[in-house]
## 1
Amino acid sequence: MKKEEEKKKSSLTEKTVSRRDFTRIAATFGFTSTFLAYHGLAQAGTPPTAMMLAQAAKETEQERAKVKAKVKLRYGTAGHDIESTWVAKVGTYDFVRDLEERTDGAIQVQLMEANSICGEMTCAEKCIQGIIDLYLTSTNNASTTCPYLNILDFGALWPSRASLYSFAMDYRSEDLLREPMRRLYGIEMLFGDYGLRGFFMSKVKYGQGTPALDTLDKLKATGAKIRTTGTLFGLKSMQLMGVNPVAISYEEVVDAVRQGAIDGAEAWEIPFNMIHFTEFTGQYLYLKYCSGNWVTGMNVKSLDRIPADLRDKFMESCYLAQVATLGKEEASIYVKAGSGELADPPPGSEHWKCNIRNIQWSKEEMDKLEKVISPKHNPQPWAEWREKLNKMYGRGDVYEKLYEIAHEVPASAYAIDIIPKRWWKPNPPWWNKPDTAPWRRGSGYFAMNLERRKQ
C-alpha cells in the first residue's frame, strides 16, 4: 500500500506543469489567459497537469474573447509571477481577475510578468514613457526614477504596518502622495502591500548558539556588512545606526551571503521568503526602520483614456485589490513567512523551517533607534533632502504632515483591524475617532502586546 501511494505521488509530481509546458501553452492561448487559468487551478488547491492547464487556458481565452475589449492595458510586474504570489500577496491577480469580470471583458489586461518587460529599477520609468500602462515594483526602487517616493522612507516614520495601510486608504494621501505623483511624473498610485524593513543576519555568523543582537550597541559592535537596495533613505538610516550598507541587487543577495561578501541583508517581511534567503538567515531583527512596499501604479494618460463608466469599475477593482492585499499579506507574514512581530515562528512557516530566531527589540531599544535615525529627533542629516521634497510637494513640510498622520496609529495596532475605505473619497466622520476606528486605539485586551500574561 505504501509503495502504491509513493508511486501515485511520484506520478502526480511528474505530470505537473514544467516551465517549458507553461511557455508552450501560453504561446498558444496567451500569457494572461494561461496565468489566470493557472491561478484558478492553484486557488482550488489542484496541482495542474499540462493537459489540465491547456484546457483551462483554452476555456479562459474563449471566455475573454467573447467580448470585444474597449480598453486593453499592458501591466508589467517586476520579479513577480504566479509562483511568487504564493507568499507575496501583491494583489495583481485579484485585480486582473476582478476587473475583467466586473467589466464583462470591456477592459482586458495583458500581464507581462517576472521581469519580462521591466525590472525593479525600470518598471516605473517604462510606465511614465507609456511603454506599459500599469506597473508593479517596490516604491523604494521606483524612487530612483521618482524621487518624491522617498517621502515614504524617512527613518522610523511608521510605527506599524497598520499606520502605513491606514495612510494608503486615507483621503489625506491624495494631498501628500497621489497628487504630487500625478503632477511630477504622470503616475497614479493605486494599490499595494505595505511593510517595514528589518535585518536578516547570516546563519554562519549569527546562527544558533551566538548572542542575540537585541540592542543597537550589539548590532553596531558587529561591524556587519548588510546588503541594501535602491532606497536612498533606507541607506541613510542604516548609516545613522552604525552598520555598513553594501549595495547588492535582489537577485544576487543569496550568492553574496553564501560567498561571505555580506553578513546579512535588509528587506521587509516577505521578499526573502520568495528567494529562500531565509535558508541562510540565523537571526531576523525586526527594526521597522523604513518602509518596504510593492505598489501598482498607472500612467495617468492611460487612466484618462478609460471611459467614465468603466473608470468607476476600474477604481472599484483597485479598491477590492487593496482590501484583499491587506488581509492576505498580513496572513502571509504570520502564517507563511513567520516573521513580523512574532518571537516564535509558527510551525510550518518559513522562519520555523529554517530555524530562524526572530529578535524583537524592547521598547527602550526601539526608542533609542528612533532617536538616532528619525528626522524628528536627529534633523540635520535629513535637512537637505527634506528641503528638496518640500519644494516638490509645494504646500509646506511634507515630513511633518506625514509624521502626524503616521503617529495617529499606535505601534500596538494590527493592520487587520483597519476598516477599509476608498482613498479617493473624503474621510467620513468615523475615520479618525478611536471609538469608531478601532485600529487607532492602541489599548485594551486585543492590542498588540509581546509580553506573556501572568498566570
## 2
Amino acid sequence: MELSTKPDFERARAMWKAYWAKGVLKRPLVWATATRPGAKNVLDHNRKYYHAVTAQYEKELAVIDETLANTLYLAESMPMFSPDHGPDQYATFFGGKLEFAEASPATNWVHPVIDDLEAALPLAMSETSPTWKSLMHYSRLLAEHGKGRYFVSMCDLHSNADALSALRGPQNFCMDFMDCPEAVGEAMLQVRKTYPKVHEALYQAGGMEGRGCGGWAPFWCEGRYATIQSDFLALIGPEQGRRYVMPALEEEAEYLDHCVLHFDGPGALPHLDDVLSIKAIDVIQWVPGEGQKPMWEWMDVLKKCQKAGKGLQIYGLPNVEALKRVHKELSPEGLMYVFGGLPEAELAELLGWLEKNT
C-alpha cells in the first residue's frame, strides 16, 4: 500500500504490526506530526461536528485537503480523518437529537428523551436516524476522498452505559440503578447488541477493510479497531460496574481485533482492577481529568497497567526531558508516545535516543 502523505508507510506499518503482537521493534511507537516548513495556516477545524451534522461535508473535505497539504506525518503517525458527528452520536440511534450552541460549534450534546426507563423498553436502534444516515453518507465520501492519501478512522462511539446516560440523563440513570435495576440490565443488553452492527457498518462504509482502521485516540491497525470506553463508570461503584458495564466492555473488546480503553478520571479508579482483568483490552489511555496532575506523573497507575500486561498511551509531555524521564521508569513493551511539534531533525534525534535506550 502507498500513501502520498506518508512516504514511509511500510516502515510504520511494520512497527504497528510488532506493537500489536506485543513486541518492540527497535523502540516504542511515537505518534508525531509537524507543520511543513513554510506551510500556510491550516483552515479552521473547530466546526467539524457542526459541518457534518448540517451536511456541509464539502467544507470539512476542504479542511482535510488543507491539513494534508500542510502536515508532516512523522514516526508512526498516520493521516486519518473521522466522520464523527459528536460524542453522543450513539444516543441518536435510539431517538436522541444532537444539539448545538452557537458559541460552541466544536461540540454538541443530546437532551434526555426517556422519561421512564421501564416504559421505554424494548429499545431499538433506528437506521432512519438522521445522524445514522449522515454518518453512512459521510463515511463513503471520506473513503473515496481519502484513497491513496489517508485513512478513515472509527468514530468516537460512546456506546453501552454512556449512550443510556445521554438518553436518560446521568442523574436519572444513576437513580435507575437503585429503582429499577432489572430494567437497567435489560436496557444495557439491548444497547450492547447493536455495537457489532454499528462498528461493522462504519467499517465498511469508511473503506477500512483491507486498508486499515484508526480512531479518535491516535492508534492504527490493519484490522477492526476502536477506542472503547464507559465514562459513566465514574458515577457508579465497582459492584454495579461488574454487573452492568464490564460485560459490555468485554464484549466490545472481544469483537475488535485491537482496542484501547479510554479510562477517564479519578472517579473511575475504583474500577481499574476490573478493566485490567479484561484480557482483550490491549492498551489503557489514562485521562486524569481537569485539575489533576498530568497523566505521565501517575506512575503507580501506569505501572499497575503494565504489570497487568496492558500497553499505555503516554501524552501531554511538556518536553523531551520529561519523555526521557518517563521512558526510564516504564517498560518499553506496549508504550506509545504522543509527542508532536518537534522539527524533523530534533524528532530524529529523539527517536535515535529511544532506540539506544530501549
## 3
Amino acid sequence: MSSSADLLRIATAGSVDDGKSTLIGRLLYDSKSIFEDQLESIEATSESRGDEHTNLALLTDGLRAEREQGITIDVAYRYFATPKRKMIIADTPGHIQYTRNMVTGASTANLAIVLVDARRGMLEQSRRHAFIASLLRIPHLVVAVNKMDLVDYSQEVFDGIRAEFAEFATRLDMPDLTFIPISALHGDNVVDRSGNMDWYEGSTLLHHLEEVHIGSDRNMVDVRFPVQYVIRPQSSDQPDYRGYAGTVAGGVLKPGDDVMVLPSGFTSTIASIDTYDGPLEEAVAPASVTIRLADEIDISRGDMICRPNNQPTSGQDIEAMVCWMSESGSLRSRDRLAIKHTTNSARAMVKELRYRLDINSLHRDEEATELGLNEIGRVQLRTTQPLFFDEYRRNRTTGSFILIDEATNATVAAGMIIGSS
C-alpha cells in the first residue's frame, strides 16, 4: 500500500466548458472508481436528458441546482485510487472570478492539470491557470489538450497549442511540463491509449499520474515543526508526560536529534516521536505527530522546533505575493489585518503595495494603489511579533500565510513569502 507521502494531490483548472467534469468523470469511470448504482443513475439521467453518450460530467457536478445553472461552484474534492497510487483531485471552477478558488484548491497540489480546448487553443484563462500553478510552485504541470475528436485528432493542432503554451511557460518557473492530447468524452489517452492518435507516443493521462515522481518534491533538508498544541494529560499512569503535537512541515525528525526551539533559542534532543499507533523511528512531512524532548522547556503554540544550525528566518518584515480574495473591499497600503502563519497568529500592517501583477501579460503595474478581488500583487508587511518562515520556493508550508479581516473573521488573502524586507 502506498504511504501518505505518495498520495498524489491533483488540481484541475480550465475555462468554462473545457470538459473538466467530463475528464474527472472519465478518470473515475475508466479506472473503475465509481459504484454501479452511481453509474446506473448517471446513465438514466443522461438518457432522460437525451444525451448521446453517458454524461460522465454528472459524476462531479454534484448539486442539481448548480447543474441547472451550468455553474460549478467552489472547490470539490474527489478521491480515487488505482493499484499503483491514491489520488485526490481538487476540481476548481474555470470562471475568471475564481482565481481565489484555484489558489485554495491548488495550494497543496503536487500536480496541476490545465485543460485547453483543442478548437479554441490558448485562452487568457489558460495563461492565468499556468501562472497561478507556477506562483503556487506546483512541481508538475500537465497540459491536457481536450476535444481532439472535434479537430479530427489533428497532430498539427496539438503541436500548435503545445508550441504556444511552451513559449509562455518559458517566462514562468515550471520544472516539469507535459502535454497530452485527449478526448475526455470518448476516453482517448485518458486511461487507455487512443487508436485515433497513433502519432502521439507519450503516456496516457492516468499512466502519467501513476508514474510521476513526487518523492523529491518535498523539502527533506530543513527540519521545521510548528507546535500546534501542548499535551499534558497529567494522568496517574503518565504524571509527567509533556508532548508537543503538530504537523511536520519539513525535514526528517528522529529520536536523539538535536533540536532548537524558537523564539526562546533553547536546545534539547528528541526523546521520542509518539503517535496514536505507537512511537516512530522517524517522521517526515506531512506526518502529524507528538514530539517529546529530553529537557523541560517552556514551549507553547506557535513556537517552532528546528535544528540548531538550520533555522528559519525570524522576522517582522515580510515581502510576499498575495492573492486578494475578498468581495467586500480591496487591499491598500496602511491596512491592518490579522495574519495566520503555520500555527502562529499575529497582526500585520501593509507597509507598501509594491506592484499589481497583470496575470496575462506578467506586466508589473507599480502605479497601482490597491488590489481588488482575484488580483495578485507584491506587498511589504510588518507583523506585531516575529514569524519563523522560509521562502515559499523553499518550503510551501512555512512560506505561506493567510490574511484575515478582524471585523468579520473572513479570510481575505492568501500569501506566498518571497523573503524578509
